[in-house]
Specification:
The chain is of the alpha/beta class. The protein is built from 14 helices and 10 strands.
Length: about 350
């Protein structure tokens, strides 16, 4: 692809980390169970370190890191973060040391949560782990990471920090502007037009990237973001801010309207990384109808939100819907106890 949109992004340094294009797959059994025509954008298949959307999101920050000759990568996020897991793997691939700051976002976790899933992979990649006791203060987490970077610089390292708060340019969202272009090219090849796109919305890099990408390419398809961390009002404000920054970065500041930003918190439990019955049922339904694995933190919530949108009529029956599968599968194993004991009572039939 060599469109004007692609050219606008070429000015940003980039390293290629993942497999692309990722598949665009039909999900006929799951779609029939929901009363829609369902397609899955398989960004769980991006390749690096069990894949997921963070592979696309890291290509541009790490491109900048390489342009600065950095030798040490610092990143902050939740204990079971997909972002830090992929960052640790990418750092190794690029010959960088990785320091991970693990934020305490989920209360009352067990030993399995702290040792399995993404944490196990972080350790396997040899990342240095640091604990941060606060889970809901992004500026404080970034400040703590900057102090660690300063300490490492004083030791002779060349650190590069991936910040969390939206005060910093959303380089990672550029990956999802390109993903929007990739998806539309695949849809054209299959003679498809989507009535709705459904994706998780947390940091807003995926949501804002897709929204800006689709609008920059002239597609007005609704992009429904399903909240994984914040309430609707807070998330709409965050996505709007990130999308505005992103649109300016690619020289398309007027590409979207405020009404384009949609977020839904109706299936969000009491906070980040927590399960409820709607999410458990969505995970089980996808697995039993389509053999499709979803995770408890992001894609399980996103599928639960899609189901609720269909049931409420926001997405009408019979619509052709694109579900953006952002991966996160290692977290399934960290939630084994909380999922396993519940599965025998799943209300969905086997066929």
């Amino acid at each position: 692809m060599n469109s004007p949109l692609t050219k606008a992004i070429e000015k940003f340094p980039r390293v290629r980390l993942g497999h692309a294009p990722t598949p665009l797959d039909a999900a006929p059994r799951l779609g029939a169970a929901l009363g829609i025509e369902l397609w899955i954008k398989r960004d769980d298949c991006t390749g690096l370190a069990m894949g997921g959307n963070k592979v696309r999101q890291l290509e541009f920050p790490l491109g900048e890191a390489q342009s600065r000759d950095a030798d040490t990568l610092l990143i902050t996020s939740a204990v079971q973060s997909n972002y830090v897991r992929v960052a640790a793997a990418a750092g190794r691939q690029l010959g960088m040391e990785t320091h991970i700051q693990m934020e305490e976002r989920v209360p009352d976790v067990d030993a399995l949560y702290r040792s399995s899933g993404n944490v196990l992979l972080d350790r396997l990649f040899g990342a240095t782990l640091h604990s941060f006791p606060v889970g809901e203060d992004e500026p404080a987490a970034d400040t703590s990471l900057d102090l660690l970077a300063q300490s490492l610089a004083e030791e002779g390292r060349r650190p590069y920090v991936i910040h969390l708060a939206p005060a910093h340019p959303p380089l990672g969202a550029l990956g999802y502007v390109l993903a929007a272009e990739e998806t539309l090219a695949q849809a054209r090849d299959l003679d498809l037009e989507f009535d709705a796109v459904v994706c998780p919305t947390g940091s807003a890099l995926t949501h804002a990237g897709l929204l800006v990408g689709f609008r920059a390419l002239g597609k007005k398809v609704p992009v429904f973001g399903i909240c994984v961390r914040r309430d609707t009002g807070s998330q709409v404000a965050r996505v709007s801010k990130v999308a505005e920054q992103l649109a300016s970065m690619i020289d398309r500041p007027e590409v979207f309207d405020a009404d384009d930003v949609m977020a839904f918190d109706g299936v969000l439990a009491s906070g980040y990384g927590r399960l409820n019955d709607a999410v458990r049922e969505a995970i089980a339904l996808a697995a039993r109808q389509e053999g499709l694995l979803l995770d408890p933190v992001y894609t399980g919530k996103t599928m639960a939100g899609l189901i609720e949108h269909v049931r409420s009529g926001i997405i009408p029956a019979g619509s052709r819907v694109l579900f953006v599968h952002t991966g996160g599968l290692p977290a399934l194993f960290a939630y084994g106890d909380r999922l396993g004991n519940w599965l025998s009572d799943v209300p969905w039939g086997e066929g």
